[in-house]
Structures are given as C-alpha cells and as structure tokens.
Amino acid sequence: MPAFRAILRFGGSVLCVSGVLLLIDATLTIVWQEPVSALIATRNQTALDDQIKRDFALFARRTEASGASTPSDRGDLRAAARRFERSTQTGRAIGRISLPSLGRRYVMVQGTDTESLRKGPAHYPDTPLPGQGGTIGIAGHRTTYLAPFRTIDRLRRGDRIVVTMPYGRFTYSVRRTRIVRPEDVGVKRPVGYEQVILSACHPLYSAAKRIIVFARLVRAEPLPSGPRR
After folding, report:
1. Entry pTM
2. Cβ-contact 97, 75 below 8 angstroms
3. d(CA 106, CA 147)
4. I need a labelling partner for 226 at 20 to 30 A (CA). Which of 26, 44, 67, 181 fits?
C-alpha cells in the first residue's frame, strides 16, 4: 500500500506539472505565440540566415562570371530575377522580408507547403519573384512558428514592405487590406503593375478566412554585390 500511494502521489504530481505547463503554453500562445514552434522556427531562421548569405554571394559571383551586366533598370532586374528563379528550391531561403512599421524582419523561403511555412514567410511558387512584374504572393503564420504575420492587420496605407533579393531591393507601399475566403485565389491575379500580397489566416487562432495585405511597388534598386545583412 505505501508503494501504491507513492505511485499515486507521483502520478498526481506529474499531472499537476503537466497542467501548469499546458496553461503556460496556452497563455503564451494567446498573448505572444506558440512557444515550442517559436523555438523551432528561430532555429530554422538562424540556419536560413547562414544559407542565404552564402547563396547571395554565390549568385553575385555567378553573375559576374557569366558576364551578365549589373542590373540598372527594370528590364535588367527582370532578367536577373529569371536567372535567380532557375536556382530556387522548395524550402530554401530566397530573400528577406522586412515590415519596418511593425519592427519585423525575416528570411523568406520558397514554397508554401507545410514544412516550408514552418521556417518563416514563404513565397507562393505560382507567383512571380520580385522584379518580374505581376503579383508576388507571400504567406506566413500568425500564431505558430515565429508568427511572422501575426500583426499584419496593423499595417496601414503607406506603410512599407521591403523585400531584398540577391539581385535587388524592392520597396512596396501598402494600399489596402481585405478579408477573403480561403479558396479566393483571385487575389493573386495580375493587376497591371507589380504588387506584393501578404496572406495569413484570419482571425487569430482560426483558418476560417484569410487576411490579405496589398502593397504596390514604389522603388526597385539593384544590389550588384548582394546584401551584406
């Protein structure tokens, strides 16, 4: 009997601790983001940061070795984007995205499959890359895996979205925000000018709808040597 009571006390202690941990996890998820996935995504972002520095430098060396001219206008940037597109792979880093008004900056990956989205903001592969014109789609989580797009509902008209690729830096100005159904793929259609859309589940803790932020290209700058940071 003493041994049985000891086992019961131990089991009760384990359940109490587990309950407290679950409560802490739930509280952090509500006020911040899901902490376990945040740790995983932070580790992924660190690895991607190292990878992208190497890849950007490699792209610059290959461009120089090929004799391709340094981008100087929209046509050159479009050509550079096409060259880079041929080397992209699902799940690998392709650039950086910065939301200055929200104080957020992340490495962006190619592909919106489940595994890629766990690494950070992800580029829809069926949309162009920055510099190619059309509508560039980027998706991100709001409550898990760093929750990079948690607060995109706070973006206002005129706020900047900056996307840095190995061949150029592209600045977009927010124009509007829409709430749409998940199956509404029309938001990715071309509109006659280059724009970027940010897509995430809406509302928080639900996948019932999508929040879409539309931002128009206002500046495109070449990066002949690739970004340093």
Report:
1. 0.81
2. no
3. 11
4. 44
> Of 154, 140, 159, 149, whose CA–CA distance to 215 is shortest?
159
Q: Specify the pairing of strand 195-202 against strand 135-139.
A: parallel
pLDDT tens-digit series, residues 88-145 = 999 999 999 999 999 999 999 999 999 999 999 999 999 999 999 999 999 999 999 9
**Is-contact 121 128, C-beta < 8 A?**
no
Give the H or E element holding residue 99: strand 93-99
Q: What phi and psi, each to the nearest 5 degrees, are found at residue 221? A: -125, 130
State whether residue 52 is helix, strand or coil: helix
CA–CA dist 190, 45 (Å, integer): 30
CATH architecture, domain 36-222: Beta Barrel (2.40)
